């Protein structure tokens, strides 16, 4: 399946990634991306930047190397209540917010606890997508979370890094199962390279193959085109981004 938007990328600001935003943009263009989201880790992750980093993304041009840039964050799910570590002032400065489990922040606590945390953060209205749910360390009720995400227009991510086996080993079968459940309930899929080095940005060979395998309808893959991604942001209640009108 064609994918033109990468909604999960990192720069060296995350503390354990190795490229700049400009380097990411250059590789995004080379790899055929029309748009990508800058989603460095928020504060609870060791090495992550101060919240001013996210609030100040307004200084970043909306286009770099002719590729559209969304201002975002990968925030951490902190507890079963679905709280995240994003500073309250940051929400007004961001276009795109992913929430993810990370072992350094939320220690694995069992299927019931993970399901509760995911459903609570969905219902909070504070996040646009759930990141790398295939991680076997964080089992959850796939159907319950997929239904909740559909009801609240929250996208579920298919993460190319997870599918490559280099990180979150054991995610492959779970990602396929999650994708099938999301398809069955009519939910939305987003796609992220989770690039921590620019060469990986916009590479979706594993994700694209999985989407084809499960026969995911392209109108449910919000990263299929920039227009679909912007339509999803509007569905989420986001204000239009003037610079992207007509994409």
From TrEMBL:
Q: Which keywords does UniProt give here?
A: Hydrolase, Metal-binding, Zinc
For the ligand (Zn(2+) 2), the binding residues are 16, 41, 196
What is one term from the GO cellular component aspect held by the record? cytosol
For activity, the cofactor(s) needed are: Zn(2+)
Binding locations of Zn(2+) 1: 8, 10, 74, 194
Name the domain of life this protein comes from. Answer: Bacteria
Q: Name one GO molecular function term.
A: zinc ion binding
Matching Pfam families = PHP
Q: Explain how, and how many, cofactor molecules are bound.
A: Binds 3 Zn(2+) ions per subunit.
Residues holding Zn(2+) 3: 74, 102, 132
* One GO biological process term: bacterial-type flagellum-dependent swarming motility
Residue intervals of the Polymerase/histidinol phosphatase N-terminal domain: 5-79
InterPro entries tied to this protein: Phosphatase_YcdX_put, PHP_dom, PHP_phosphatase, Pol/His_phosphatase_N, Pol/histidinol_Pase-like
Which NCBIfam families does the entry link to? PRK09248.1
Give the family, as the similarity comment puts it: Belongs to the PHP family.
Name the record gives this protein? Phosphatase
List the lineage, top down: Bacteria, Pseudomonadati, Pseudomonadota, Gammaproteobacteria, Vibrionales
């Amino acid at each position: 399946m064609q994918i033109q938007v990468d909604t999960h990328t990192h720069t060296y600001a995350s503390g354990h990634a190795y490229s700049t935003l400009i380097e990411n943009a250059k590789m995004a263009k080379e790899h055929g991306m029309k748009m990508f989201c800058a989603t460095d880790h928020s504060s609870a992750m060791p090495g992550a930047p101060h919240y001013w980093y996210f609030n100040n993304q307004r200084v970043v041009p909306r286009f770099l190397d002719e590729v559209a840039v969304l201002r975002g964050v990968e925030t951490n799910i902190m507890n079963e209540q679905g709280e995240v570590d994003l500073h309250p002032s940051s929400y007004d400065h961001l276009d795109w917010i992913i929430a993810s489990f990370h072992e350094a922040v939320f220690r694995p606590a069992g299927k019931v606890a993970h399901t509760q945390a995911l459903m609570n953060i969905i219902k909070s209205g504070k996040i646009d997508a759930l990141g790398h749910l295939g991680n076997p360390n964080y089992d959850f009720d796939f159907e319950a979370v997929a239904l909740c995400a559909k009801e609240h227009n929250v996208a579920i991510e298919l993460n190319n890094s997870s599918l490559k086996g280099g990180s979150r080993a054991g995610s492959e079968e779970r990602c396929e199962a999650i994708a099938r459940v999301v398809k069955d309930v009519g939910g939305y899929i987003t796609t992220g390279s989770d690039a921590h080095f620019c060469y990986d940005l916009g590479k979706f060979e594993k994700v694209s193959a999985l989407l084809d395998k499960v026969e995911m309808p392209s109108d449910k893959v919000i990263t299929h085109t920039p227009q679909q991604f912007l339509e999803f942001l509007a569905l989420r209640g986001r204000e239009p981004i003037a610079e992207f009108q007509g994409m």
